[in-house]
Design brief:
The chain is an alpha+beta fold. Helices cover 63% and strands 11% of the residues. Its EC number is 2.7.7.65. This is Diguanylate cyclase domain-containing protein. Keywords: Membrane, Nucleotidyltransferase, Transferase, Transmembrane, Transmembrane helix.
């Protein structure tokens, strides 16, 4: 059995209610020999409310109501029926307004869900590090913090060319074993405040807040040592070649450095 959300049920109820009231209004106009083209106000009312603005439906209702009362001088229609026609038109206006509100809320909920999904997929599933998109977001945020508070930060890229065909050469289990080893050791070699990313299959990035290039270089040496000391599942040692590139971002060169970082990643991706 299909499970409907409360918002879906409200939307269905509004659509059904709109159809019923529209049918009653159209029937009442035809039964009293009123111009059929007057029914065009129904789709105009809904389209203006949904696509233009909620208040536009009210303006159309007021305009048609005034026109209707003026035209009634040429018809012999009881006042009660005139009142019912205007009442049905008012009900349609309210239904169109409520429908617009529900659709707006649905769109808002969809945008929130998309934002949550984007946040979830911002993590590399193989290492648990944030991905390339999150890297650029955090990079911009760190640059903005730098402009406000001063100081310096360092961005380091670590390239492991062997990762491009690691799985093909050593198998899936060995590949996963290495990624687990590398991610764990990288966490151990850095501070909690240092942010780690996987920006490409073979490239990782580290963002060191409030750090100089000299201090970041100490972490580079630790990473090289852990890669040289790696052992495969069967205990056989395997030396992993490592290439690194660092950018020190200061208040004076912040905009230029971010451009250099972007260019470096683009060029690295083309290799």
């Amino acid at each position: 059995m299909r499970h409907w959300s409360a918002m879906s049920l409200q939307l269905i109820a509004l659509i059904v209610g709109s159809l019923i009231v529209s049918t009653l209004l159209s029937s009442l106009l035809m039964m009293n020999n009123l111009p059929v083209w007057w029914m065009i106000c129904i789709p105009v009312l809904y389209l203006s409310t949904l696509l233009v603005h909620r208040a536009s439906g009210v303006l159309i209702t007021l305009g048609f109501g005034a026109y209707f009362l003026i035209m009634m001088s040429g018809y012999t229609i009881p006042v009660l029926k005139q009142f019912i026609i205007l009442l049905l038109l008012t009900m349609l206006t309210n239904l169109a307004y409520l429908l617009q509100v529900i659709l707006f809320r649905s769109q808002f909920a969809l945008n929130v869900a998309e934002a949550r999904v984007s946040q979830l997929i911002a993590v590399d599933p193989e290492t648990g590090f944030d991905n390339r998109n999150r890297f650029f977001m955090d990079l911009e945020a760190e640059r903005d913090r730098l402009i406000r508070s001063g100081g310096t930060f360092v961005v380091t890229f670590i390239s492991l060319p062997l990762l491009n065909d690691f799985e093909k050469r050593y198998g899936l289990s060995e590949y996963e074993w290495f990624l687990d080893y590398f991610s764990d050791e990288l966490h151990e070699a850095t501070r909690r405040t240092d942010k780690k990313y996987r920006v490409a299959t073979d490239t990782f990035a580290i963002l060191f807040p409030q750090t100089s290039l000299e201090k970041a270089q100490i972490v580079h040496e630790r990473i090289k040592q852990l890669l040289h000391g790696y052992s495969r599942l069967d205990g056989e040692p395997l030396t992993i070649d490592c290439l690194d590139k660092s950018f020190e971002v200061t208040l004076e060169n912040s905009f230029m450095s971010l451009d250099e970082i972007r260019i470096y990643l683009i060029e690295d991706e083309k290799k």
